[in-house]
From TrEMBL:
Pfam families assigned to the protein according to its UniProt record, in alphabetical order: Acetyltransf_3 (PF13302)
Protein name as catalogued: GNAT family N-acetyltransferase
PANTHER family xrefs: GNAT-FAMILY ACETYLTRANSFERASE, SPERMIDINE N(1)-ACETYLTRANSFERASE
Source organism, top-level taxon: Bacteria
Keyword annotations of the record: Transferase
All residue ranges annotated as the N-acetyltransferase domain in the record: 9-175
Organism of origin: Flavobacterium rivulicola
Gene Ontology MF term list: acyltransferase activity, transferring groups other than amino-acyl groups
Protein's UniProt keywords contain Transferase: yes
Amino acid sequence: MVTLKGNTIYLRALEPEDLEFIYHIENDESIWEVSNTQTPYSKFLIRQYLENAHQDIYEAKQLRLAICKNETTEAIGLIDLFDFDPKNKRAGVGIIIQNETDRKSGFGKEALGLVINYAFQQLQLHQLFANIGTENTASIALFTTFGFEKIGVKKDWNFANNRFQDEALFQLIKK
């Protein structure tokens, strides 16, 4: 069986105790651009989401996992499989590390590697995709490290910082 534990981090299911953490991430306007969020989320809505987090990926069509440093239970980020399509054996993948001090420390890379392995081995997916703003060089570098290839650019796709920005579609097909 595939493990979701790496050398420095592990991935776990969301817990009710993650309410404040998710609330802060979802309402952090500085990352709305990468998460395509447009409005704040209430604690009520996030609590409802957490109450339904027990649904498996086949029912919910998504899987959100907390990224935690080994030896702790406190989340430092989130990684998602979304738009899960079992018929066509594909899903989107997205990742966020909350604090800048934890970024560029290898935690995101390790989490993405674990999720790719889980998606291809456990879920038997054929491909993963990621939508990344063309100016988000850190995410582009992360995903291309694992062999994601840019297959197209959606021009003027997202409106952020009072201007339209392009978004690239990256794809990883299981060999």
